[in-house]
Amino acid sequence: MGSCFSVDNAKSSEKKRRSERITTNSSAVGGGGSSLWTKIRSCGKEENLIHEQAFAAAILYQHLHNGSGRMSFDRSTSSRYSFGNSRRSTQALPRNSSSRARSLTHDPMLQPPHHLVNQDSKMENLETNHFVLVHGGGFGAWCWYKTIAFLEECGYKVTAIDLTGSGIHSFDTNRITSLAQYVKPLTDFFEKLADGEKVVLVGHDLGGACISYAMELFPSKVSKSVFVAAVMLTSGQSSLDIFSEKVESNDLMRQAQVFLYDNGDSHPPTAINYDRSLSKELLFNQSSAKDVALASVSMRPIPFSPVLEKLTLSEKKHGCVRRFYIETIEDKAMPSSVQRNMIANSPPEQVFSLKGADHSPFFSKPQALHKLLVEISKIP
Hints:
alpha/beta
């Protein structure tokens, strides 16, 4: 989410931005969403092309096509993207080869370096070859499009989740009342996962709290967890505890957050949005204009209730899952100091640092992020 929430500041922020506040609807991205983001869409051909190319990279894969080759895309029911389910050769991929249609990798931004494609280890020797990617607050499965392409090039299976009210999941963010409701697409995935199958579970930002919740429920189905500039909570903590620490020393965050009060001003906020004029500096200060354009037409409000909820995490369940942390050095939304405090309070097995990465490393440092994910998957 790259977000921070200060309850004490909520009312004052609301008064300052009352003229800016909007009410979201339950339409999916591309069909409505938050008017704060959709009202800035341009009808120019260049932006449409940018959006089509980037969004297609995440969703135009074989399992979103029916037998006739026509795309099956039901906005009202599609809450998760699952990629790379076809059986792949266990041999290392030769240089410049791809098991996917060549047309999907013409964009040079989706070309992984040759040394990452030409892996010398066989996939069956990995503890798992299935990554499950969980986005942060305001984002959706679409934000992982480069990571998905890179991992698939190396023969991994990838599932990117749209949490409730995020991405193209058709639900009004303001109506989310619990973390369980917000995380339901992820828990539904685990409930359907075959017995004995394990995944590498990756969470970004608020997605860190979501994967911790899943680790407590399904510890036997998670081989490793990876927190990418993510909330990493201890038992009894809420995401608000972490975000409050961020907002106290972050003027940019205080200025960027816009609280939404769908139940009226006398009730707590129902969601948080970002001032678009400040979001680039806050979330994408090292990212390309192309990816910022994608985010500007795709991001949705962040539900407030899940941020308030304290997690109950046990050593027997959550504690038995191996944890790794990827720190983003140039992050203005989740500063390194905040990330290091979480690491110190609940030390993971290993910490990795991404130099030059902003709060959205899947945009700003996609190749380096991919390399670390592959490295973590191979740790015995």
